[in-house]
UniProtKB/TrEMBL annotation:
It holds the Pfam family DUF1989. It comes from Anoxybacillus suryakundensis. InterPro entries: DUF1989, UAAP2. Residues 19-182 form the DUF1989 domain. Signal peptide: none annotated. This is Urea carboxylase-associated protein 1. The lineage of its organism: Bacteria, Bacillati, Bacillota, Bacilli, Bacillales. NCBIfam families: urea_degr_1 (TIGR03424).
Amino acid sequence: MLNQVESPRKVENAVYNTIVPAGTGWMRELLPGQVLRIVDLEGNQAVDTLFFDSENPEDHYSAVATITAQKNIYLTTGSILRSESGKELLKIVADTCGRHDTLGGACSAQSNTVRYSHDTLFMHNCRDTFMLLLAQHGGNYTKRDLAPNVNFFMNVPVTPEGNLEFADGISGSGRYVELLALRRTMVLISNCPQLNNPCNAYNPTPIQLLIWNK
C-alpha cells in the first residue's frame, strides 16, 4: 500500500520557488528546519537526488544506512534519510506519490551502454549532471563524493529472484514529496534526462522546487 500524506504548507508562503527544466540539475543547501518540496509537474519524472552533511561533505547520503534503519527498501512519509556515519540528514514529512526508489542508482554513459546499446554512450545522463554541478559549486565536492542516490518518483520493483525492474512510474501530474532538513544539508539534484526506460515515460519533463523556513 502506498503511504500518501498531504502537506499543510501553502505555495504562497514558500521562501524559494523555482522550475528545474528536464535534463538539468540543481544544488543548494538546506538549513535545519527548512522543508524542501519536489513537485513532479507532469508525472512520471525521475528525480535523482543526493544529500551531504554540509559540515562534512564526505559524509553523504547512504542507501545502506537508510534501508537498514527503516527495514524497508522504499522511501515514503516518515522515512529518515541517513548519512554514511548514520547521522539523520532529512525526514520525509509529506508525500503524495507514496513510494520512492533508493536502489536503482543514477544513469551514466557507461551504464547506458551496458543496459541498452553502445550508441547511447553520448546521451545526456545523471552522473554527468551531478559532476557538472559539483564542479560549478567548487569547494570540497568532487566526483569521489558521488554515491548511490535516491530516485524520487521512480518505480523500481524487486523481483522474487532479487533483480531490479525499471517499471512504469506510479507518480502523476502535481504529485510531490517534502523533506525536512534535520541538520545543514547540501542537496544535489539531476532532473533525469533518461530516454531509454520508462522511468520518465520516455519523455523527460520539468520539476518544481519550493522551500519553506521553520
